[in-house]
Design a protein that fits this description.
Layout lengths: L4 E4 L5 H28 L9 H40 L5 E5 L2 E4 L4 E7 L3 E9 L5 E10 L2 E7 L12 E11 L2 E3 L2 E14 L2 E6 L3 E4 L5 E2 L1
Parallel strand pairs: 1-10
Antiparallel strand pairs: 2-10, 2-13, 3-8, 4-7, 4-10, 5-6, 5-8, 8-9, 10-11, 11-12
């Protein structure tokens, strides 16, 4: 049964983050003003601070306050974006996604993966290996156009025997006009849950484990 859960690693809510940053900015401003007032109260009567010096320090206060307010705004915006990303990620639970990888999961005798061709190919071959690294199946996909090329594996080895369900690895080789290349490989997996952290949402994708939202190429 699919676990449809969203867990959290303590992400500060946008309102709380803004309030905390605003409080820090206010504290810094109060300290600055207190230091300035203390300096003016204890200045040498025979050599008082000139207007230019006071104006300069007030300008510094204004600059510091402006930077603090900007930091508070950015902090609130960042927290809001993280919360929004987590809500979007939660809607992906139960969906199959395509991510970069070289793993093909055999389930109920069927496996699915894909590769990306940057140019057409006269021939494309797939090599599937087991957990020990031994080659169990060689597949020929024939000529292909450029772009994403999905393929299915029936779970059979080169001898026609059905292999047990599990995780296998694969690699691809493309050939065009006698020149060989290694296309980028991609894996499919089912999103089971979402983990919300300080850096954003992370997806738990089948046997692929934790996958960042930015790594998702396609949602099926």
């Amino acid at each position: 049964m699919i676990s449809s859960t969203v867990t959290s690693n303590t992400v500060t809510p946008p309102a709380s983050a803004a309030a905390t940053a605003s409080s820090a900015a206010s504290d810094a401003q109060n300290r600055f003003l207190k230091l300035l007032v203390t300096q003016m109260q204890n200045q040498d009567p025979l050599n008082p601070m000139d207007n230019a010096q006071v104006t300069s320090q007030m300008a510094q206060l204004s600059t510091v306050s402006g930077i603090d307010r900007l930091n508070a705004t950015l902090t609130a915006l960042s927290s809001s974006m993280i919360a929004s990303q987590s809500l979007q990620a939660a809607s992906m639970i139960g969906h199959v996604v395509m991510v970069p990888g070289n793993q093909v999961d055999l389930t109920n005798g069927k496996g699915m993966a894909a590769l990306n061709l940057t140019q057409p190919a006269d021939s494309v071959s797939i090599t599937i290996t087991d957990a020990s690294g031994s080659v169990v199946r060689n597949m020929q996909l024939g000529n292909q156009t450029s772009g994403t090329v999905p393929f299915q594996w029936d779970g059979m080895n080169d001898s026609g025997q059905q292999l047990p369900d599990g995780s296998y690895k694969f690699s691809a080789t493309a050939q065009l006009a006698g020149v060989k290349s290694s296309p980028a490989t991609m894996s499919y997996g089912l999103v089971n849950s979402v983990i919300q952290g300080t850096q954003g949402a992370t997806l738990s994708v089948g046997q692929l484990g934790a996958v960042s939202m930015a790594s998702v190429i396609q949602i099926l």
